[in-house]
Design brief:
This protein is mostly helical and 109 residues long. It is built from 5 helices and no strands. α3 packs antiparallel against α4, α3 packs across α5 and α4 crosses α5. The longest helix is centred in the C-terminal third of the chain and has 23 residues.
Length: 109
């Protein structure tokens, strides 16, 4: 996957010293595995007092924000890594439903 960095995140990363090509590393100086990072992220969330947060929840929040901003299903898939339209459809359906409801109420006199 090739996901462009948001300019704010790019500035933060550039300003943070790191001797590694991988920005987040384990206590052993190695890059996280996918599962290892998910577990560590959940630990960080618990430590921050956010026990119901996870990487999956973050992915879902990104998909929701993209859909609410008018991104297409294919654009969302390119960012989130979802493999099928069906997986992403829930986000665009909810966003479209809100836009249609707002439009309908604008016509109500």
């Amino acid at each position: 996957m090739d996901i462009p960095l948001h300019p704010d995140l790019e500035r933060i990363i550039e300003a943070t010293p790191s001797g590694h090509l991988t920005f987040l590393i384990t206590e052993y100086g190695k890059p996280y595995t996918t599962g290892g990072f998910g577990n560590r992220f959940k630990d960080w969330c618990r430590q921050a007092g956010l026990p119901n947060c996870s990487c999956h929840g973050l992915r879902s929040a990104v998909a929701t924000r993209l859909a609410n901003s008018g991104a297409s299903q294919f654009e969302i898939m390119a960012i989130t890594g979802h493999k099928s339209l069906k997986e992403v459809e829930r986000y665009t359906k909810a966003a479209n439903r809100k836009k249609l409801a707002d439009s309908a109420m604008g016509k109500f006199k």
